[in-house]
């Protein structure tokens, strides 16, 4: 739907700031979206406007009431965007900080001696929080080992280690190292089949930009995103928690409302930019479908994004025009398999005979922005089992083009003589 519509691709790209050039570097192709997606122009304008508003939301004056209305609208927009008919949304320092808060609360409310289950594919945002608070709360941590070849962990993998005394579980929706997505609904179902009252917390940070969010369908208790990876800006994260987790004893001010999770004065601008993002997805859904229902338009946008990004990653792997794909380059190895239907807009590679940092720098000199992932505390859980010290992450979004993919392939192909 996007692939065969050049006018729509142009309209999409026109809505993003710095889509084809960097104010520091000049003309460039942006394949570093997993590190932070491009920002909507509307988000830039909205941020500037609310940065100048001195009034606190909720005060008894027109600005205080007006900004509170903006926050309330953003939460309503999030409920439609992420399909949540219950629970609550709130903002925090970052997606990582919010995951720590949710996991901490679940662990300290779990019976001593019970279990926390998580997987080895997870980003340290959940793994670190779960391991730390399991130890403090005297819980036993259970590690579900992912498949190194596919970069996945499945519902069956979780089910094999589930016992009724599992009280907290963490799930990664998509890996920022390999781009491979997990079936959250299936994993959640497998967990609840054995431990129906388990607290389930999901890291949705990498997945969110690729559309198709369905909290009602996941049957979980917590879900976090980082808006700077979903076309908004840095400086805050968004969490959703179920009514059950909302009511659990948690960090709060004395005599504050029992289900309140927000601390301090809210940043109206951050919430307002969330509405800008949802408005954008709604616009895109209207371009690729004839749906009139807001949720249906958002679903259509998510499906169109998924299909187009799959087309782009397939072009990257299999080739486009007369250019061979990454799979056909003898000096290139693709992580998580060449044919992986769970891939979400990201291809990570290693180049024979070249350090990944050198590959990234060479590409950058040609105006192609990618990123090095090292076997450190962020990515070692994925790279170390593969015997890799690093890799090159090539991450895209639906505003990227096949022509940009072709330029990347030509540049990577030329590295064969350099390696």
Automatic annotation (TrEMBL):
Q: What class of enzyme is it?
A: transferase
Which keywords label this protein? Pyridoxal phosphate, Transferase
User: Care to name a GO molecular-function term for this sequence?
Assistant: cysteine desulfurase activity
Give the EC number(s) under which this enzyme is classified: 2.8.1.7
| Transmembrane segments annotated in the record for this chain | none
Q: Quick one: which gene encodes this?
A: csd_2
Q: What is this protein called?
A: Putative cysteine desulfurase
Q: Report the residue ranges that make up the Aminotransferase class V domain in this protein.
A: 29-247, 324-408
